[in-house]
Amino acid sequence: MEFDLSWILLGFPLAFVLGWLASRFDARQMRAESRSAPKAYFKGLNFLLNEQQDKAIDAFIEAVQNDPDTSELHFALGNLFRRRGEYNRAVRVHEHLLSRGDLSRPDRDRAQHALALDFLKAGLLDRAEDALRRLEGTSFEAEARLALLAIYERSRDWKQASDIAHRMQTARQGDFSVRLAHYLCEGADVLAATGKLEEAVAQYQQALVLAPSAGRPQVDLARLQHRLGHSEQAWSTLQGMAEKSPGALPLAAALLPELAQVLGDAQIRPWLEAQYERLPSLDLLQALVALDAAHPGAPGRERYVAHLDKEPSLVAATRWLADEPFAQEQHHPALQRALEHASKPLTRYRCAACGFEARQHFWHCPGCQSWDSYPARRVEEL
Questions:
Q1: Residue 162 and residue 134: Cα distance in Å, rounded?
Q2: Contacts with 219 (C-beta within 8 Å, 6 or more apart), sequence order
Q3: Residue-wise over 291-316: b if at least 16 C-beta within 10 A, else e?
Q4: Helix, strand, or coil here: 353?
Q5: What span, in angstroms and rounded, lies between the C-alpha atoms of 121 and 130?
Q6: Which residues contact 13 (CB under 8 A, 6 or more apart)?
Q7: Residue 185 is assigned to a ligand binding site
Q8: Residue-level pLDDT, tens digit, the chain, 382 residues
Q9: Phi and psi at residue 371, to the nearest 5°
Q10: Residues in contact with 239: Cβ distance below 8 Å, sequence separation at least 6, in sequence order
Q11: In the chain, what are the domains?
Q12: Which of 6, 92, 116, 371 is the most buried (most CB within 10 A)?
């Protein structure tokens, strides 16, 4: 059988035409896909700028489907899910990014940080801790350490918090001496509550060495020294506090009448009067009135009236009126109750960071977790 070369001559042009058509089809498809991805991206961006997050997410999902290798779209999508509180979907997006073998090192670190934020926002602190620890040695190291510090403070793991704060201080990422002093005080509070009073004193003193101008170690140390019967030491601690951190003295004012009963009134009263003249406050005023109660010739309740010349105070007026005789005494109890009801909110403490109010003073705000955000003065005095 003879082979006909004419078929070969006819086949070459046919193959060329088919190949050309196939390449044209692929090129058109690629151009269509490349046009659709930016179009979906810009559509999503437009929705995002107009605060239409649902439509923006739909547009970004469409763009990711058209071009699954676009990491920036994944990051945008994951951040949108996190902002909406859809933490499971955000975690899936960022875990998908981390599973990709072609992801660059900076993008991998970024995805790891985003995943840690997902866990943190979702309240999964153990998983967030693990994700944050993997960021050591990356460009997100400082942010990760701050987040870890917040986790340990929230869980009251003061040892771990101290370790992180020491590392950040060593790396010159800020001055954490006051915060480290707070951690020592927290540990000392636990020791004192379990009866280990001498160990607690040593820890307060260590905190005072670390942050000499911090108010908390001095206030807590003076209270514990007096509790142990070391009233002279407590008095010395308060005198030092008046020099180094006078603003915190009102927090220890209630201790002064107790010290006066042990050490005598002669040295404490003049000193307290001088501190009150230097920085008038309701707590120092109340301590002076309490000292006067044991001395008939002392000003006593008249100090409330004198305080009104310095500062208008409903609290001071209410306390003065409590024992003041009225012309119509039958109305006195009702009037006193009304005044006390009105003045009671003014005796609270208020966080300067978040505005959270409480009847007791906090060194660590239970609302916003800020340290030293509660002034030592009452709401009325702010």
A1: 19
A2: 241, 248, 251, 252
A3: bbeeeeebebbebbeebeeeeebebb
A4: coil
A5: 14
A6: none
A7: no
A8: 454 555 555 555 555 555 555 555 444 544 444 444 456 556 666 665 666 666 666 666 665 555 555 677 778 778 878 888 888 888 887 887 788 777 788 888 988 999 999 999 988 999 999 999 999 989 999 999 999 999 999 889 999 999 999 999 988 888 899 999 999 999 999 999 999 999 999 999 999 999 999 999 999 999 999 999 999 999 999 999 999 998 999 999 999 999 998 988 888 889 999 999 998 999 999 999 888 887 776 777 788 888 888 888 888 888 887 777 766 676 678 877 887 888 888 889 999 999 999 999 999 998 888 999 999 999 988 8
A9: -95, 140
A10: 271
A11: 69-170 (1.25.40.10), 175-238 (1.25.40.10)
A12: 116
C-alpha 230/C-alpha 267 separation (Å) is 17
User: What does R_g of the chain's alpha carbons equal in angstroms?
Assistant: 35
Quick check: helix, strand or coil at residue 350?
strand
d(CA 69, CA 37): 11
pTM: 0.76
Task: Report residue 66 as tokens.
Answer: 């058209």
Nearest to 228 by CA among 183, 189, 195, 268: 195
